[in-house]
Amino acid sequence: MQFTAEFRDAALVHKGIEEIRRTVTRPWTLMEICGGQTHALLNTGLDEMLPPEIELVHGPGCPVCVTSLELIDKALAIAAQPNVIFTSYGDMLRVPGSHEDLFSLRARGAQVRVVYSPLDAVRIARENPDHQVVFFAIGFETTAPANAASLLQAHALGLKNYSLLVSHVCVPPAMHAILGSPTCRVQGFLAAGHVCAVMGYQEYLPIAEQYRVPMSVTGFEPLDLVQGILLTVRQLEAGTHEVQNAYSRAVTLQGNLGAQAIISRVFQPCDRNWRGIGPIPMSGWGLRPEWAAYDAEQRFSVAHIQTQESPICIAGQILQGLKKPPQCPAFGQQCTPETPLGATMVSSEGACAAYYRYGRSR
């Protein structure tokens, strides 16, 4: 707690903001990739303390938010089958599919359980050999090692009733998609510290060079965020485009090589459909062919399911930094945390949920 408290020191945070104020000379638009950073910025009020020249927009770094509608519908189709125990993190239960969510399905009798780790799902599979147990393996690079480890453990235990519904996505291809768009507004990035703790930040170096966009690997405490913003603004003002590490206590250039090895053993790159954004080539991970027996899509024959996004929800534009939640006509009206139209209002890391929770409705 003492170590964390140092990064919440109000005097140091205000000092950093004053340094940003002295440095900036023109408007700049920065994107924080991670939804956890979005909530931290709004929760602490940092977004309102920054000088008006700095505009923060919110990226596709919420794993619940970018899980495609078709994956949600596949999850619902699997969970509705008899003798299936469908396991998931709590946020996913309320993400709307085409017609309902997992929470509603559970209320009608389906065996949908909240777990806090994929290893909990493996334990459930051991305790229920007469049921098929499925874990909804969502997330960015951060959660991939644990999800891969659960499959390896199930294999080591000889469990035939455990499978993964995989919805893993990766940050660098999403950054390419955003920066390569003709409508891109982003001039600098705050890279997601937790993702970089696993993968390092080597993959970001060629992106910064190709698009001439500066980046700072940034943590989640107030001082982390202020330092990341300051480093990025300094680069913008100087006309440089490097990747700087403002989260060195948790992130190295190489990342966690052991975790990367586990990921490579179980997963391989694949195309992925992002909710509200659409397909991005080679932007996700799927199971390697040798682990196909643990693929829930194949086991339950749901790969054919396709869906259509809601025409009302503008989550895709929000996740690309083109609009902010209050610009959606449904925000706070048809779309609230109790009656969400899209995942960005459901997830604990969603931008719409953050704006609603912390009163940024202007």
Please describe the topology of this protein:
Blueprint: H1 2-5, H2 10-23, E1 28-34, H3 35-44, H4 46-49, E2 54-61, H5 63-66, H6 69-79, E3 84-88, H7 102-107, E4 111-114, H8 118-127, E5 132-139, H9 144-156, E6 162-169, H10 171-179, E7 188-192, H11 193-199, H12 204-211, E8 215-218, H13 222-238, E9 243-245, H14 257-266, E10 267-274, E11 278-287, H15 296-299, H16 315-319, H17 343-346, H18 351-357
Parallel strand pairs: 1-2, 1-7, 3-4, 3-5, 5-6, 7-8, 8-9
Antiparallel strand pairs: 6-11, 10-11
Helix pairs in contact: 2-13, 8-9, 9-14
Keywords: Iron, Metal-binding
Family: Belongs to the HypD family.
Pfam families: HypD (PF01924)
* Alpha-carbon Rg, integer: 21 Å
Count of domains: 2
Specify the structural class: alpha/beta
> What's the multimeric state?
single chain
CATH class of the largest domain: Alpha Beta
User: H/E order of the elements?
Assistant: HHEHHEHHEHEHEHEHEHHEHEHEEHHHH
Keywords: Iron, Metal-binding
Organism: Levilinea saccharolytica
Family: Belongs to the HypD family.
Protein name: Hydrogenase formation protein HupD
